[in-house]
Amino acid sequence: MNRFSRPDLHTALAAFALFALLAVAGCAATTGATKSMPAPSMTESARLDYDYLIYQDLLHQLQKHVQEGERSTLTTQEVNDIHARAVAALNRVLSQAPTPELYVEKAGMFWNHPEGASRSRAALKEGLEKFPDNRLLTVYLANSYVADNRTDDAIAIMDGFLRRHPKDMEARERLGQMLMDAGQDAKALDVLKQIPEKQRTPDALYAMGRVQGNLGMRKAAIANLKKAVAMDPEFTEAMVELAYQYELAKDYVSAERIYGSILEQSDSFPEARLRLINLNLKLNDPAKALELALGGPPTKSFILDAVLMFINDGFFAQGSTVLDMLTTGSAVPAEYYFYKAVIADEGENDPAKALSYLEEVKKTDRLYPHALRFKAQLLAAQGKDAEALAIAAQGKALYPEASIFYILESGLRKQQGDLAGAEASLKEGLERLKNDPELTYELAMIYDATGRRPQGMALMETVIRAHPDHANALNYVGYTLAEEGRELDRALVLVTKASKLDPENGYILDSVAWVHFKRKDLEKAWEYIGYAVDVVDKDPTIWEHYGDIAAAMGKTREARKGYNYALKFHSPDPKAVKEKLKKL
C-alpha cells in the first residue's frame, strides 16, 4: 500500500543524517567564537520526512510492547505517552501531506484504544472530508460500525457509496460480504449477483456460495464454490465450505476428498480435520475417525470438539480414548472429569461412576455450576429426589444470579408431578432476574402444559419482542400458530428465522415442515421433514408429521413408514396414528 508521496527512504535518511551533521558542526564552530552561528532550519520536505520517521519509530515501540505482552518493561503511562506522541507526529504529517492511507493508519491507532471506535471513526470521517468518496476510507468507516455491532449503519454507508459509484465492483463485493455476515443472505445474494461474472473474484464467489448454501440453493452454492477454488486452489475457507455443502447434499465421497486435500495442503486448519472426523462417524467408520482425532493438534479446544463428536454419535469408547489426551499435561483440566462423567452415564450406564468423576470438579472451576446441575440430574434419575432438590437449592445459594438453578429446580419438581412447585421456582427466579428470557420461556411452557396456552403465548411474545433471536421462543410461537391454523405467513417467518439461528435443530426443522404443510406447500414441507428425521430419528411426533405430509402427497409407502415409526417410538396418541394407518 502506498503511504504518501515523498523521497525514498534512503533519501529521507540521508537528509536526516545531513541535518544532524550540520547541527553538530554548528555546535563545534561556536567553541571559542565570539558569536554563535544560527542552527540551520529544516526544509519543509526534510521536516515532513523527519516527522514520519518519528511516527514510525514510536509506532514500532508500541508494536513491540504489544508483542512482548507481560514481558514488556513499559508502564501504562509510558505507553500512553508514546501513543500520544505518535498521533501528534502523524497529525503533523497529515497537515502537510494527507493521503487516504495515512488517515486509515490514524484510525488504526485507536482500534484498541480505551476511547474506542469513536476516535477511529473521527479520523476516517476527517479523511473523507479531504477525500470524498474514497473507497478505502468508506470501507474502513463501515468496518468501524461493524466493530460496534452497528451493522445497519455500516450497510447504509456502503449503500450510499454504491448509489454514487454503481460500477465500483470491489465496494459491491464488500457490501455483499457485510450483508452475509449480518445474516441477510437474500439481500447479500442480490448485491453479489450484480457483479458481472467475469469480474467475480474468489472472495465474491465464496460469499455467493455461502449465502446460497444458507438459502438452501445447494447446487448453485456448490457451483460457485467450485469456481472459487478453481481460481484459488489454496483458498481453504472456500474448500471447507464446498465440502460442507457436499455433506449437506449427502455426497460424502466428494466431501471426504476435499477435506483430505485440505489436510494434505496444511495441517494448520483444525476445522477441516474435525469435519473429516465427523464425516467418518457419519459413514460409520469410528476407527478412521479416531485415527484422525489422535493425529490432530494436542490443544484442549480441538480435543474437546472431537470428543463431543464421538459422544454425540454414540461412540463413547473412542471419545474416552481421545479425552485421555488431556492427561498428558501437568494438570488435568476440569473438562476431562466432566466429559468422563458424561461417558460414564450415557455410554456405560454407570451413574455412580459419573458422580465420582463430577466430585473431581472443584468449586473454583468455571464448570462447577454445570457439574452441580449434572449431579442433580443423575440423582433424580436414580430416584433420589430429595438429594437432587438439595443440589438445586445449593446452586441457587451459590449462584443466585444464574437462571439455570431455578430452571433445574423447576424441572425436578415437574418430573415429580408438582407443576405448581415448578411454576413457583420459575417465578422465584423471575423476581430476582426480571424478564430473563430462559426463565420466561420455561414459565410459558408450564402454562402450556397446564392448559393455559393463551397465557403461555402472551409470555412467549414478550420473549421474542425483547429477544428477537431467541430460537426456541420463535419456534414455539410459529409452531403454535400453525397448529391453530392462523397467521401462517407470520408463522413461516418465525420458524424460518429460528431455523437460521439453530440450523441443526431437528425439532425446529420439523416446525418449518409443519408450517409449510399447513400452508399447503407440500414440496417444501416434504423437503424439511426429510431434514428433520435425519437429525431427530426417534421422535414419534416428527414421524407422525412425516406420515401426514407423505399421505397428503400420495406417497403411501412413505406415509406407512412414518406412522409405523411413530408407533414404534411410543406416540402419545397411538389410537389416532393407527386410524391414520387404516385410511391409507
UniProtKB/TrEMBL annotation:
Q: Which key words are in the record?
A: Repeat, Signal, TPR repeat
Tell me the organism. Answer: Pseudodesulfovibrio karagichevae
**Cleavable signal peptide:** 1-28
Where, if anywhere, are coiled coils annotated? none
Task: Indicate what this protein is called per its UniProt record.
Answer: Tetratricopeptide repeat protein
In terms of superkingdom, the source organism counts as Bacteria
> TPR repeats span which residues?
202-235
